[in-house]
Amino acid sequence: xxxxxxxxxxxxxxxxxxxxxxxxxxxxxxxxxxxxxxxxxxxxxxxxxxxxxxxxxxxxxxxxxxxxxxxxxxxxxxxxxxxxxxxxxxxxxxxxxxxxxxxxxxxxxxxxxxxxxxxxxxxxxxxxxxxxxxxxxxxxxxxxxxxxxxxxxxxxxxxxxxxxxxxxxxxxxxxxxxxxxxxxxxxxxxxxxxxxxxx
Length: 199
Prior knowledge:
Layout: E1 5-9, E2 13-19, E3 22-30, H1 34-47, E4 53-59, E5 65-68, H2 78-87, E6 93-100, H3 107-124, E7 128-132, E8 134-140, H4 146-150, E9 158-164, E10 170-176, H5 180-189, E11 193-197
Antiparallel strand pairs: 1-7, 2-3, 3-6, 4-5, 4-6, 8-10, 8-11, 9-10
Helix pairs in contact: 2-3
């Protein structure tokens, strides 16, 4: 993904599979902060209180990642789940794999595969959403250049988010970060007054 564009889950997804009598439930959720993830994890632990393990990983936009084996042998659950998220190239994404032990030991290799495959299956069933990082511009727009300003709209790169008509017409545009400098220069060239505002 580019520096101002990434993909994230659009909605939660779940898949359930049996591997050597153990049952695995992969749950994908969109999260944008650690606290939000831990609240979600708590809900899932309560809902599936009878499970043997609740292993997980998440990857946030900006590079923060964490994972947990939740009692499975070290490196056999959290890291494989995280590698599935990284393989799908998703951010602001968490996967929790719930396991009910069925009496047959899978060995470390088998466990790693089971957790990674369950996570990957759940991720492949997840609807995705494109997210963009924007810079907000506020323009002062005289009536005689309204047409010119409306022609600037080009989603998802340039999105008109607000228009206020009055003595001074002000329009707010969200512009992809990677295009903000060029957009500002173009406005200056067209003699449109603008300023950056926090969204």
